[in-house]
Amino acid sequence: MDSSYSVPRRLRRVLMFLIVLALCGLLGIAIAGEWKSGIVWPEPPVVDPGPVGGPPSDAVVLFDGKDLSQWHGGQKWLVRDGVATARGGGITTKQSFGDCQLHVEWASPSKVTGDGQDRGNSGIYMMGKYEVQILDSYDNETYFDGQAGAIYKQSPPMVNACRPPGQWQTFDIIFRAPRFAADGTVKQPAAMTVLHNGVVIQNHFELTGSTFWHKPPVYEPHAAKLPLHIQFHGNPVRFRNIWVRPLVPIVGKKPNEPGKSTTPKETP
Coil, strand or helix: which one is 117? Predict the structure, then answer.
């Protein structure tokens, strides 16, 4: 047999085989149709995101530059020109929150005094128990799990995204509250994602307990919702544009399968 004819013939056979396979695959997809989960989802509610920095239309506004009426202890702080300056003690929200998205804008003093933990120190306490550290960490040495954006004494920020002293900074905190069993044991730990000036510095970090300065973190059973707290640590840290969004997961329903029920069984 002449080899000059055999090679193209073999190639034609291979090409025909591949074409047949492709057609069979397309036919199989056409017969099978589109895969669908079968879950019936409610329509997600429409939320107006608002201006850059918020607040979105479904947010609870905690400070809009006018007053601190949403806070216990707010009368101690100085409110002027749309800014609240910390003094005289911490403040605690009158409302309680569990899973939530919290937006806070803050600025350390423009005039640098002190160093380490004595420079622009404050803190955001989720549920009054789990602290995200506020600190002037711009060219300021301190222990890493105590610098700006740290989950205090549990996790340093992945990067230092701090702006120079006096400049406005943002924290956006996505918080999942811990879940406790009836006997007080932890079913699911608290978790936080934190963005500092738009940069992710904590990525769904699971906390090992409440924040303490004098002892290791430990969980103590508490309610599903508790107030937020902003610490006063002796420094006149400034705040503006504070809002929070309770996070409610969207839940779908899956049609009953033969012999099965969509009703969850109670856990003993």
Answer: helix
- Is pTM beyond 0.85? Reply is no
Single out the residue of 194, 132, 139 nearest to residue 162, CA to CA: 139
Left if phi > 0, otherwise alpha if psi is -120 to 50, otherwise beta: which for 129? alpha
- Nearest CA to 90 out of 233, 236, 243 is that of 233
Which range, of 112-116, 171-175, 218-222, averages the lowest pLDDT? 112-116
Residues 232 and 127: beta-carbon distance below 8 Å: no
Break the chain into its structural domains and give their ranges: 60-246
Please provide residue 18's backbone torsions phi and psi, each rounded to the nearest 5 degrees: -65, -40
**Phi then psi for 116, rounded to 5 degrees?**
60, -130
pLDDT for 259 equals 40
Cross-strand bridge partners of residue 173 = 102, 194
Structure tokens at 266: 């109670």
Strand arrangement, sheet containing 71-72: 71-72, 91-97, 226-232, 122-126, 130-134
Main-chain dihedrals φ then ψ at residue 67, nearest 5 degrees: -160, 175
The CATH code belonging to domain 60-246 is: 2.60.120.560
pLDDT band for position 268 (cuts 50, 70, 90)? very low
| Residue 143 phi, psi dihedral angles, 5° rounding | -70, 140
User: What does the block give as tokens for 243?
Assistant: 């809002």
CA distances from 30 to 36, 38, 125 (A): 14, 19, 55
Give the pair of three-digit tokens for residue 100. Answer: 């939530």
Residue pLDDT, tens place only, 27-85 = 665 566 888 888 999 999 999 999 988 899 999 999 999 999 999 999 999 999 999 99
- Residue 171 CA to residue 184 CA, distance in Å, equals 31
